[in-house]
Amino acid sequence: MRKEQIEPKAVIVIFGATGDLAKRKLYPSIHRLFENGQIGDDFAVVGVGRRPWTNEDLRDTVQNSIAKFEYKKDVKEFTSHFYYHPFDVTCSDSYRDLNELIEQLESTYQIPNNRMFYLAMAPEFFGTIAKFLKSEGVTSTNGWSRLVIEKPFGHDLASAKALNQEIREAFTEDQIYRIDHYLGKQMVQNIEVIRFANAIFEPLWTNRYISNIQITSSEDLGVEDRARYYEKSGALRDMVQNHILQMVALLAMEPPIKLNTEEIRSEKVKVLRALRPIQTDQIEQFFVRGQYDAGMIDEHQVKAYRDEQNVAEDSNTETFVAGKLLIDNFRWAGVPFYIRTGKRMKKKSTQIVVQFKDIPMNLYYGNGETMHPNLLVIHIQPDEGITLHLNARKLGGSTFAEPIKLDYCHNCEDGINTPEAYEKLILDCLHGDATNFAHWDEVALSWNFVDVISQYWENNKTLSPNYKAGSMGPKASDELLGRDGFHWWPI
Ligand code: BG6
To answer: What is the DSSP string of 317-350?
Structure first.
């Protein structure tokens, strides 16, 4: 939790300042923090990149990146805090010059030697940058220095370990903030509160009352212009290893004894340790992979994955994954956690459905109709809220029941403007709060879990397009639940 509640003062150094993430997420987020007064006037951002830009180029880029948002404060005043530093990642002089620039800015803005280094660029340079930052004295400050790292954090456990070692030579675990932007989402953070602040859920949150939990994170977009990365990654590494397993951990963890970073992380780690490892000969039974074929989305014809730019004609990369996870502990023994995620699906939606067990006798549904189970649906995005599915007496004097819904929509309330995940995470890091970042132990355990599956898939190059763009994935994904007598609840 927050160690420094006062307005944070720091120089933020963004490596990859000309890149897509900086433009789409980081500049708008820093701007919102400035607009809302969460960072004051004493801050500076150094944009680092290979291109020979000037301060003016960077400031124009920042201004364009926030153009579509509303703002009250003077935009020129905001962009005047941005400085560009052309840079060669492998050259020590670049780091010394960077240090000088930061020192000047610390003096201009009276910033007490606090530095945030945000690596928003190709991961192959993470280790080199960390090493030079230390060797050239950029991290030796009287204040704090923190390293924020974007995913992917490695490609498998071995590469993640190697990367971690490199970074740890320059930064301690406490100084490293590994981004999982799902942890910055309002409703992901709400999972904990819904569970632990409600007497009607907390006692029921066990295998005695819950029959299964379903997590869906679907996207309607395809691979866009990221095929070079995605061809090597696939949906399992891109979404399951990080975002989905983080949601599983939050749904399954025990109540922490305190709401602090160490206690919450340690409960999440225990869940990941209790995940039942999948044996190679069980993969077909527990996991389904898919790849999108051509199809229609919003009445537009879209291409097959294999026809996208920079994708191999015979690509075996999965753009869809569904799986059944089991957590071997007292609370969850016997409760399947079903997960699915994919590109070019029917619509963009992330939701969690907690399905409760049926009550013992069906008194109120006649004519052979089955009972409607109670469901708690947590809407992560684009809607943010919860829906509780209950049964109530049918109107009109009948003895029968009908399903009803209690709805709470967070982002429907007037005046609520949900902060963008990155906005929250940047602020957390400035405050020294690492709760919503992935600890190394979580990253390692997650790789350990998915590595077996990805290795098996890599060795079995039998995937071909098996779901139409605009659908909810391959048939085998429905069969995965069907075998257990369940089905996916609609998104
Ligand atoms: C990223 C993945 O981590 O998450 C992308 O690399 C994916 O492939 C994205 O599209 C989804 O994030 P969100 O916030 O749009 O659900």
So the answer is: --SEEEEEE-B-STTTTT--EEEEEESSBSS-EE
Nearest protein CA to atom 14 of ligand 1, as residue: 182
In 3D space, the residue among 382, 418, 403, 414 whose CA is nearest the CA of residue 491 turns out to be 382
Indicate whether residue 219 lines ligand 1 (CB < 6 A): yes
Q: What is the mean pLDDT of residues 355-365?
A: 86
Cα–Cα–Cα angle for 129, 135, 141, rounded to 5 degrees: 95
pLDDT at 317 over 70: yes
Is there an atom of ligand 1 within 6 Å of 428 CB? no
| pLDDT at residue 2 is higher than 50 | no
Q: Annotated catalytic sites, by residue?
A: 243
For the cut 90, the answer to whether the pLDDT of residue 419 exceeds it is no
| Cβ of 238 below 6 Å from ligand 1 | yes
Distance from residue 377's CA to the centre of ligand 1 (Å): 21
Side chain identity, residue 423: E
Q: What pTM was estimated for this model as a whole?
A: 0.95
Above 80 in pLDDT, residue 170?
Answer: yes
Question: How far apart are the CA of 70 and the centre of ligand 1, in A?
Answer: 25
